[in-house]
């Protein structure tokens, strides 16, 4: 469960970075 949380957080941060660089 913990691992899953870490993966989701990393993925979300990556998506936010990607979204910002897209704009």
Automatic annotation (TrEMBL):
Q: Which domain of life is it from?
A: Eukaryota
List the protein's name. Answer: Uncharacterized protein
């Amino acid at each position: 469960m913990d691992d899953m949380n870490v993966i989701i957080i990393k993925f979300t941060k990556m998506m936010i970075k990607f979204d910002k660089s897209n704009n």
